[in-house]
Q: What sequence folds into this?
């Protein structure tokens, strides 16, 4: 396998789960391209606009702290090789590999659809989670600004909203987040996997550098926006050595809450991750996978509720102890932000004021 500059997936673009054919460039086409341009081009990013009929997704998962979410984009240009959202591209006859990070979808009607949902008489407010599947601040947000439109609507309606991201691009909406925070309507989690920019470029090639993410946490807290660091995912023998240092950096920027999650490898993510390991860390690939399996009941992935978020075994206990002891020493606790759901006011539609 060979790495592709600026992409997380190595060279696999297969979608084995649904027995779809592998998506590979035609050999004659590559020969012709090389004759004309002199070298093979890197996969380009494309964006397709889609227009769904609804935008708010509800779930009944007993081990996640939210029951509704919005994904303004499908696919993610950040290209994180470990992303557990990659398999969703297989449902659309696209590969969870390169397609996931190069063939993106944007939902420009998201704010309008959300307004229609919030205006329904039977709607009951609860925090909307953003960034639970693909990143709401991936690079195409610069162009579409869908996340900002949603935050504007949440501010207008006083609806609670949470954000998880790997980008300092969240600071571009700091004006809205400050106002939401003043009314106890938001908090932000920024995910950091390591403090090594080289390793970060391999793991998550188009995400913000670790230093930018740490600085963004400081800016958020300084502006009065509740924020915490999510050390996710922890990858044994790849990123776990940064656990204490990330907590220390976050504490130095005023962060007082943190979480950690072990890497999850559902469906097509496992073979993609193994390819990545064999390409970038062949000397320890077998050790990494063996350690992961030891915490997942002997499998690459544990899909069961509760245990999927709480790995077991000696290694898991060691990670928990390291995290707990360091967090306690630094005065860092668990996130405990209870957002206000009582101030919600139903939005108007087409300029017409609601009756109540």
A:
């Amino acid at each position: 396998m060979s790495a592709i500059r600026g992409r997380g997936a190595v060279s696999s673009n297969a979608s084995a789960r649904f027995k779809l054919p592998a998506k590979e460039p035609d050999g004659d086409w590559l020969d012709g391209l090389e004759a004309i341009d002199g070298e093979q081009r890197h996969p380009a990013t494309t964006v397709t606009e889609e227009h769904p009929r609804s935008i708010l997704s509800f779930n009944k998962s007993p081990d996640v702290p939210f029951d509704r979410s919005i994904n303004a984009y499908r696919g993610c240009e950040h290209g994180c090789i470990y992303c557990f959202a990659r398999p969703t591209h297989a449902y659309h006859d696209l590969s969870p590999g390169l397609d996931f990070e190069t063939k993106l979808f944007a939902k420009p009607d998201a704010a309008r659809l959300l307004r229609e949902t919030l205006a329904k008489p039977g709607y009951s407010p609860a925090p909307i989670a953003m960034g639970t599947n693909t990143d709401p601040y991936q690079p195409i947000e610069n162009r579409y600004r869908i996340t900002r439109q949603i935050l504007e609507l949440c501010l207008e309606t006083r609806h609670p909203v949470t954000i998880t991201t790997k980008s300092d691009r969240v600071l571009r909406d700091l004006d809205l987040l400050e106002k939401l925070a003043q009314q106890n309507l938001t908090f932000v989690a920024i995910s950091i996997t390591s403090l090594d920019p080289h390793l970060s470029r391999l793991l998550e090639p188009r995400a913000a550098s670790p230093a930018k993410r740490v600085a963004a946490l400081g800016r958020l807290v300084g502006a009065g926006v509740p924020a915490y660091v999510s050390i996710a995912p922890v990858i044994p023998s790849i990123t776990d050595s940064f656990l204490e240092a990330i907590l220390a950096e976050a504490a130095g920027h005023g962060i007082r809450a943190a979480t950690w999650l072990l890497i999850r490898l559902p469906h097509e993510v496992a073979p993609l991750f193994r390819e990545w390991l064999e390409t970038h860390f062949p000397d320890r690939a077998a050790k990494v996978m063996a350690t992961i399996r030891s915490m997942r009941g002997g499998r690459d992935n544990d899909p069961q509720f509760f245990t999927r978020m709480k790995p077991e075994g000696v290694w898991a206990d060691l990670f928990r102890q390291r995290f707990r002891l360091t967090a306690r020493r630094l005065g860092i606790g668990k996130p405990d932000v209870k957002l206000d759901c009582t101030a919600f006011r139903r939005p108007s539609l087409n300029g017409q004021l609601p009756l109540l």
User: Anything to note?
Assistant: The domain at 41-330 is CATH 3.80.30.30 (pyruvate-formate lyase- activating enzyme).
